Amino acid sequence: MKKNDSVKRLIILALGLIGLCVLTAFYAHDWFAYYYHHIAWKTHNRFNVNGHLLIVALYFMLLFFFSNTYGALKIGYLKPLDIFLSQLFSLLCVNVISYAQLSLMYGWFIIGGGHMVSMMLYQLVFAGLWGWLCNLIYRRAFPPRELLLVHGERPVEDILGKFAGRKDKYHVAKCMNIKEGYDAVIREVGKYDAVVLWDIHTMDRNVLLKYCYSHSIRVYMMPKIPDVLVKGSEQLHLFDTPILLTREYALNVEQRIAKRFIDTVCSLILIVVTSPIMLITAVVIKLYDKGPVLYKQVRCTKDAKEFYILKFRSMRVDAEKDGVARLAAKNDSRITPVGKFIRAVRIDELPQLFNILKGEMSFIGPRPERPQIIREYMEEMPEFAYRTRVKAGLAGYAQVYGKYNTTPYDKLKLDLFYIENYSVWLDLKLMLLTLKILFTPDSTEGVDEKQVTAMKKQVQEEEK
User: Fold this and answer.
1) Confidence (pLDDT) at 302
2) How far apart are CA 280 and CA 34, in angstroms?
3) Environment class of residue 392 by beta-carbon count within 10 Å: exposed (0-12), middle (13-18) or buried (19+)?
């Protein structure tokens, strides 16, 4: 079984690489048929075979890098729409960079932009068809895994709903309460493709985890907060005993300097680039109901320091006339027609570029919450304060890998993954991935109409 799985995965990997080669072939065709002739005529430079190979190889490497970053090669792992969006953004980034490269070679004159656009359209058609074919092959080669879900006292409806959202990959065939005993659970474990360990006591989890590991059984384990902290720890080799170090500070001084430099430079550039969009948005909001253009709200950043976050107003002026802080709900009647549009395309967030420039926020970090909501979350989950170990961000790990209505407990774990595994490259990667989620409908899904915050009715308590 394991050998067959390895062969299947190699086939899927090969299909992904074949797709990249064909997409590169589109560029190679345009290079030889159009761009090279114009560049050679303009500059009087002639390329030998190695020069041509270098141009094509550079395109392939860029395409591989962005495809890997956006997840375009994760056939079967991501949904088909996510794969296509990943391909779209990968091709857009690579073709923009390649066009800038060709323009430099030509002498900073615009060269054949129409050819680049038409080439990308052909590439997108092929990428869509090829992705559909690869996904079809994947589903035939990898039927949904039959899962055994082992749980504790916490309700399982939420996690079952999440697995049900990927019926192409998973099927929870049976649920067992850990109270049925180790022997009963172990007798069932071998009957399924994998085991899901969901909200069970650490001692019980460790027993089952070691059993599954020793018998080469796949395990999906939902981590608790201490697990996330340990995962971000540093391994030391001071003695002949393994030691894991969890540091007392989130970011060292070099990381803070690099992060602030990126924030300052990028915010200045984006303020200039998006200023026409911000001006048009301000005019439209003012004309719609004559109300204020900007919406200021108290939020918390590093060390729970309060600041006024800036947004374009997307709700009615009297949206919170009762004084109660609440998140936007699904089909929220308080949101204006203009607000629905600017929220959908994230234009309402653009004024936060000025918060970043002032140093109150960063581009990447945990999203800033309102003090009232933080206090409410901390009544049930004191660990929620861990999110304030770094500056709040315009976008973050929880926004890329979660949704607007992701529970506070899961948001906390996602944000801690970011804090404990921080690197400049991770910031840059999340910036690139943020562009993708702008076009993902699930990421803007509101909370239920009966909820004031993202906290579920059933409180998600962490077992120590």
Assistant:
1) 94
2) 39
3) buried
Burial of 101 (0-12, 13-18, 19+ CB in 10 A): middle
Token code pair at residue 180: 């049925």
Beta strands 243-245 and 234-236, pairing class = antiparallel
> What integer pLDDT is reported at residue 439 of this predicted model?
66
Distance CA 354, CA 271 (A): 8
Instruction: Please tell me the distance from the alpha carbon of residue 200 to that of residue 135, in angstroms, as a whole number.
Output: 34
How far, CA to CA in Å, does 286 sit from each of 280, 282, 318, 337, 348?
10, 6, 15, 13, 14
For residue 4, the model assigns a pLDDT of 65
User: So what's the pLDDT on residue 463?
Assistant: 42
Give the Cα separation of 356 and 266 in Å (integer): 9
What lies within 8 Å, CB to CB, of 11 at 6+ separation is 137, 141
pLDDT tens digit sequence for 29-45? 999 998 998 888 887 87
Residues with Cβ within 8 Å of 13's Cβ and at least 6 positions away in sequence, in order, are: 73
pLDDT of res. 322 = 61
Q: Residue 73 carries which side chain, given as an amino acid letter?
A: L
* CB of 195 closer than 8 Å to CB of 220: yes
- Count the alpha carbons within 13 Å of 283 in the hemisphere toward its beta carbon: 6
For residue 172, the surrounding DSSP H or E stretch is strand 170-177
How much is the pTM?
0.79
Provide CB contacts within 8 A for 366, sequence distance 6+. 387, 388, 390, 392, 393, 396, 397, 398, 411, 415, 418, 419
Give the model confidence (pLDDT) of 62-119 as tens digits: 999 999 999 898 888 888 888 898 999 999 999 999 999 988 888 766 667 888 999 9
- Angular region, 216: left φ>0, alpha ψ -120 to 50, beta rest: left
- Give the tokens for residue 13: 């990997």
The DSSP H or E segment spanning 221 is strand 218-221
Q: Check if the beta carbon of residue 420 is closer than 8 Å to that of residue 228.
A: yes
Label residue 380 by pLDDT band (50, 70, 90).
confident
Distance CA 434, CA 396 (A): 8
